[in-house]
Specification:
- With 741 residues, this protein is α+β, with helices and mostly antiparallel strands.
- The protein folds into six domains: 2-103, Beta Barrel (OB fold (Dihydrolipoamide Acetyltransferase, E2P)), CATH 2.40.50; 112-208, OB fold (Dihydrolipoamide Acetyltransferase, E2P); 221-301, Immunoglobulin-like, CATH 2.60.40.10; 310-478, Endonuclease Chain A (Endonuclease, Chain A, 2-Layer Sandwich); 500-641, Endonuclease, Chain A, CATH 3.30.870; 657-739, Immunoglobulin-like (Sandwich).
- It contains 13 helices and 40 strands.
- The strands form seven sheets. The chain has an eight-stranded mixed β-sheet with strand order 26-27-33-32-31-28-29-30, with helices on both faces.
Length: 741
């Protein structure tokens, strides 16, 4: 392999006559701040974000650039010029001033074998290495927050750190409990200057359990939800059969359903289920060589027989002039509404709230409910109003404060920032359970003065899911220690509804998904906005023609990058809110585009790092054009109050891909494909945009096609099912592609 690398370097040596090219080893010994030019073979693609690691016969180095690195893939031979920079111990080229991809599709070097005691050192920094016969010390599920999560490997004597990045397909899969071989790139993160070496696996293929297991490469996805059935789908890297074990208790998966067909795209129906019930599932897939892969335990719910009624209130005036038929409701007194629900509870009240006072008599209402026999339980942040907490008399052991300080094993708790009340989740009558959520705390100023939204939903399945999250916290598990153990998909009153809790469920990825799926217009109203990754996604939406308007209240004054990006992209459609506190946390997608799956995202989750990685938060996503318009009526009033002008005043003519699939299929072959696929365009349709979307709807590839037939290389894409979409000004063509190597 070293000979092969050497011959590649000779071949590309004739390609560039400009910059003085040096070996990577020479570059690594040059002073920081020097500008150097190196050539090497790229070891990773976008699965590790905007950084690329490249290696030659003398060493390896990182190169970081948010935009220039986007098209660079593993196997590319690259010449790059940049400034040597020490980023928390990792030597990298940043900024990158020029980049040339010389050729692509080259085989990667064999990983260098290391041990836990010898491999986590400077000599292996940025190199592709492999450690064998080790075990993960953690069990359960790889669950990343923020950019990633660290895990320890052990061989019984030594330990070494592995960092699993959110951007890889490892996130959400089961942590192997047996011995593994782990391949990856040795990186470093040492703010203190020394140590901090981390092995970065690039995907599930880099974690091998031996044998030939199918390797489950996606989360379990739920669809076709009814009161007695739903469909479970998942993907594997290699072919295997399909088995689902399930039951109504995490510890008793007493039922199973199976399909013996070998495939990489798995889908199976669970039937004969009970309405309004949470089920726990584990998927297994067995290969032709009898090797088995397992999924993590996953919760899913059937549809209930509840009414599905949704009531929405805003405590500041709304603009009914933009209503499409159902007017938004201005309710200046949230207090009476909340007390009404408490007073009508029959069996149970579970409240998780950041802060509360008793100026509004909500504490008295909870106490009264307890006295009439309702089982009242209460969780608050440690900083809750002390007088109100002391006045809450609901029985011994029925109220707790969230923990603060350092986590067991390092790191820190965030705040218990949830805002939800679950009424009568224990009732067997599907018309009695309610969930109340939104942006407001239960203090008098928050309820009556600050700008807020509140939503109540009558649904048994949703109430049980919120109660399951409540139970986890009430048992003492908060913040980063929580697990992704609640259902996410619901059908409520005929509407698709999603539910996510932070930090266990990677809520930010759902925010970014809603942004990515917006086709026509989008509006955000957020109290705290510091996540610049969301800003870049909004910028991308604007670049593809989506109208975006937004209001925020505060950002981090020491690092205003998130707002700086928005100001550059949005200009006159972005406003910082005036007083009083603008406490919303909602996002509206395509309210003027009913055919494009309009959505509202709302809850307690600010667009901040704390919300994503530490705080306890709750978020709902509701797919419905009427609900989207109701929230838009509130946004329109806030927006014009801040000086904005409503510029979207007509409905779009968008036609979704699902409506066109049978009418305008796209031709491509082979299918299934391995390394490449040929796209055959309809006559006269050249010049359109080709996109590949993974099972979650995330774009993984795009390219303009100018020829009637184009060959697309599939290097770097994992096995599985993809939607292929080709868009022209006149029509959208689509099809489904399976990659199976």
């Amino acid at each position: 392999m070293k000979k092969l690398l050497f011959s590649v370097l000779i071949a590309i040596g004739i390609h560039s006559a400009g910059a003085q090219v040096v070996s990577i080893a020479t570059a690594r010994t040059s002073p920081l701040g020097s500008t150097v030019t190196v050539r090497g073979l790229v070891l990773n693609g976008e699965e590790l974000g905007s950084i690329r690691y490249l290696q030659d016969n003398t060493g390896a180095i990182a190169a970081y650039d948010f935009s220039l690195m986007a098209p660079v893939m593993a196997g590319d031979s690259m010449e790059v010029t940049g400034v040597l920079y020490n980023y928390n111990g990792l030597l990298e080229l940043s900024p990158v001033t020029s980049l040339t991809i010389i050729n692509s599709g080259n085989p990667l070097p064999a990983p260098e074998p290391v041990t836990l005691s010898s491999g986590w050192v400077e000599g292996y920094e940025a190199r592709l290495v492999q450690v064998s016969s080790v075990e993960f010390t953690a069990t359960g599920t790889f669950s990343t927050a923020g950019s990633g999560t660290n895990y320890d490997l052990t061989d019984g004597v030594s330990t070494g750190q592995v960092r699993v990045l959110t951007s890889t397909n490892i996130d959400g899969t089961a942590i192997p409990e047996e011995e593994v071989n782990v391949t990856g790139i040795m990186s470093q993160y040492a703010p203190g200057g020394t140590g901090g070496y981390q092995l970065l696996p690039r995907g599930l293929e880099d974690i091998s359990t031996g044998g030939n297991p199918p390797v489950i490469s996606s989360v379990l996805a739920q669809s076709n939800i009814t009161t007695s059935s739903f469909t479970v789908s998942f993907e594997t890297l290699y072919e295997g059969n399909t088995i689902i074990y399930y039951g109504t208790s995490e510890d008793a998966l007493t039922e199973d359903v199976a399909d013996a067909s070998l495939t990489v795209a798995h889908s199976i129906d669970l039937t004969g289920l009970t309405d309004g019930t949470i089920y726990y599932l584990k998927a297994a897939s067995v290969s032709a060589t009898n090797d088995t892969s397992w999924s993590p335990l996953t919760a899913m719910a059937t549809q209930s027989n509840s009414t599905g009624e949704m009531r929405i209130w805003f405590n500041n005036p709304v603009n009914n002039g933009v209503s499409t038929g159902t007017n938004a409701f201005y309710n200046p007194d949230f207090v009476d509404t909340i007390i009404w629900f408490i007073d009508h509870a029959l069996y149970s009240i579970d409240m998780a709230i950041y802060n509360i006072d008793n100026e509004n008599n909500i504490i008295n209402a909870l106490n009264d409910a307890y006295l009439r026999g309702v089982n009242v339980r209460f969780i608050a942040d440690d900083g809750v109003n002390a007088g109100a907490y002391a006045a809450l008399n609901i029985g011994p052991g029925k109220k707790i404060k969230a923990p603060t300080g350092e986590l067991p094993g390092g790191g820190f708790y965030g705040i218990m920032h949830n805002k939800f009340i679950v009424i009568d989740a224990v009732s067997t009558d599907p018309d009695e359970p309610w969930v109340i959520s939104g942006s407001t705390n239960m203090t008098d100023a928050q309820l009556k003065v600050d700008k807020q939204n509140m939503i109540a939903i009558q649904d048994q399945s949703l109430a049980k899911a919120f109660r399951a999250e409540f139970e986890e916290m009430f048992a003492g598990t908060f913040g980063p220690l929580k697990t992704n153990n609640t259902p996410h998909q619901f059908i409520i009153g005929g509407k698709e509804v999603e539910l996510y809790f932070s930090p266990s469920d990677d809520t930010e990825s759902q925010i970014k998904r809603v942004i990515a799926e917006s086709d026509y217009d989008m509006y955000f109203a957020v109290f705290t906005f510091t996540r610049f990754g969301i800003s870049y996604d909004i910028e991308s939406a604007i670049e593809r023609g989506v109208f975006v308007a937004g209001i925020y209240d505060e950002t981090d004054p020491s690092n205003p990058l998130a707002i700086d990006i928005l100001e550059g992209a949005m200009s006159s459609t972005l406003f910082q809110a005036s007083d009083p506190i603008f406490h919303h946390k909602y996002l509206i997608s395509d309210p003027y585009c009913p055919a494009s799956d309009p959505m509202v995202l709302t809850g307690s989750h600010n667009w901040s790092t704390s919300a994503q990685v530490r705080n306890d938060e709750n978020t709902l996503i509701i797919h419905d054009s009427t609900i989207a318009n109701i929230y838009y009526q509130e946004f329109a009033q806030r927006y014009t109050d801040e000086g904005g002008t409503i510029v979207v005043d007509g409905f779009c003519d968008f036609v979704p891909v699902s409506h066109l699939f049978a009418e305008a299929p796209l031709q491509f072959f082979p299918n299934p494909a391995q390394q490449s696929v040929a796209i055959e365009l309809p006559l006269g349709s050249e010049g359109g945009l080709l996109q590949l979307l993974d099972i979650s709807g995330k774009e993984v590839f795009h390219q303009r096609l100018s020829q009637p037939t184009s060959v697309i290389e599939l290097h770097g894409l994992a096995n599985g099912m993809y939607m292929v979409r080709y868009t022209t000004p006149e029509k959208i063509y689509s099809g489904r592609l399976i990659i199976n190597r």
